[in-house]
């Protein structure tokens, strides 16, 4: 009985995942790593009596060294993929991927995966644990930090990072998205005659203090702010309207339309990635639910719905 308990405890402690591609800093599969690499990359923050520095497990000081050289080259606007590996996927959770263009001072969201990340029924990777995402079309070119975060169903947080090079000239149509992009915000006010039979009807949205009238083609917004702010709100509202139309009639909006609309949202306006369950005051709900991101960004991939999605708390500590 004691031996069984010890074996269970050892398995539970080591039941975790990490970023496999692109190879994370100081990983054994990173061609720039010297030595054997970090054996704890798939351990969550705060696990096992160890202090794990934020962000990127403390490896951002490698950026100026040969060990921190880029491991991939991606074109802005292109569809890329990452994959995960480890020894236990915790039967899902929620993940985000994003970028830092300021050497780790800030991390902005590229895509949020709400539920079923890692894929709960696809083993421990890397085969079966592949995820597509679109590199923001207007992300600055040059060497940047790619980040993956995971909040598993035991309310544990992990983060891995890799150095990548961004080039110009990506095309969002390179390949189909891994999953339909889901809605990332709620219609604040809609006077809509849209229906499954008439999916192109216009709707009115209240967004960031603006009033926007949207069709499937574009949005016209009246805002109290300057023209630059109005332009950004119009792009966000158009994405929101396309997502709404797809919900009421899945055939009315294509995945490519959604990708183009999401790509039109300026990189600088994307929200910061969510950091939770790391003693920063933001906590995911202590149930079997998976995390719903309060600020998921324009690209959201919904899970399989096996578990409810619940916002972390409290609001003022979690960025909303």
Brief rundown of the structure:
This protein is an alpha+beta fold and 320 residues long.
Polypeptide structure, described:
- This protein is an alpha+beta fold.
- Helices cover 13% and strands 24% of the residues.
- The chain is built from three helices and 14 strands.
- The chain is globular.
Rg: 20 Å
Low-confidence stretches: 1-15, 170-199
- Largest beta sheet, briefly? 6 strands, mixed
Q: Estimate the strand proportion.
A: 15-25%
Distance between the termini: 47 Å
Structural class, from helix and strand content? Answer: alpha+beta
Please estimate the helix content: 10-25%
Number of strands: 14
Overall geometry comes to globular
| Average pLDDT | 82
SSE blueprint:
Layout: H1 2-13, E1 17-21, E2 73-75, E3 79-86, E4 94-100, E5 108-114, E6 130-134, E7 142-151, E8 157-167, E9 203-207, E10 210-214, E11 219-222, H2 227-248, H3 255-263, E12 290-291, E13 300-302, E14 309-310
Parallel strand pairs: 2-8, 5-13, 12-14
Antiparallel strand pairs: 1-3, 3-6, 4-5, 4-7, 7-8, 9-10, 10-11
Helix pairs in contact: 2-3
Q: What are the main properties of this structure?
A:
320 residues, alpha+beta, 6-stranded mixed β-sheet, 3-stranded antiparallel β-sheet, 14 strands, globular, disordered N terminus
């Amino acid at each position: 009985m004691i031996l069984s308990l010890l074996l269970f405890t050892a398995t539970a402690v080591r039941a975790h995942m990490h970023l496999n591609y692109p190879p994370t800093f100081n990983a054994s599969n990173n061609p720039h790593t010297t030595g054997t690499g970090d054996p704890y990359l798939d351990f969550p923050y705060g696990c096992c009596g160890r202090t794990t520095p934020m962000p990127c497990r403390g490896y951002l000081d490698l950026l100026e060294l040969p060990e921190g050289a880029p491991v991939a080259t991606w074109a802005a606007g292109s569809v890329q993929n990452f994959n995960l590996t480890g020894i236990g996927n915790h039967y899902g959770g929620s993940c985000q991927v994003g970028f830092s263009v300021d050497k780790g001072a800030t991390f902005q969201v590229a895509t949020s995966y709400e539920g079923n990340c890692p894929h709960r029924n696809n083993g421990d990777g890397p085969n079966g644990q592949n995820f597509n995402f679109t590199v923001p079309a207007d992300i600055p070119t040059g060497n940047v930090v790619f980040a993956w975060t995971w909040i598993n169903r035991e309310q544990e947080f992990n983060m891995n990072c890799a150095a990548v090079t961004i080039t110009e000239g990506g095309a969002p149509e390179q390949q189909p998205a891994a999953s339909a992009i889901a809605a990332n915000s709620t219609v604040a006010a809609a006077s809509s005659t849209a229906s499954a039979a008439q999916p192109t009807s216009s709707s009115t949205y209240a967004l960031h203090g603006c009033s926007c009238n949207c069709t499937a083609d574009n949005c016209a917004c009246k805002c109290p702010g300057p023209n630059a702010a109005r332009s950004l709100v119009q792009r966000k509202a158009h994405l929101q309207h396309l997502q709404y139309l797809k919900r009421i009639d899945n055939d009315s909006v294509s995945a490519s339309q959604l990708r183009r609309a999401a790509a039109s949202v300026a990189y600088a306006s994307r929200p910061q990635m969510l950091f939770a369950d790391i003693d920063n005051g933001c906590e995911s709900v202590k149930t079997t639910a998976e995390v719903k991101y309060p600020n998921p960004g324009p690209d959201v991939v919904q899970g399989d719905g096996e578990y409810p999605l619940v916002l972390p708390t409290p609001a003022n500590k979690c960025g909303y």
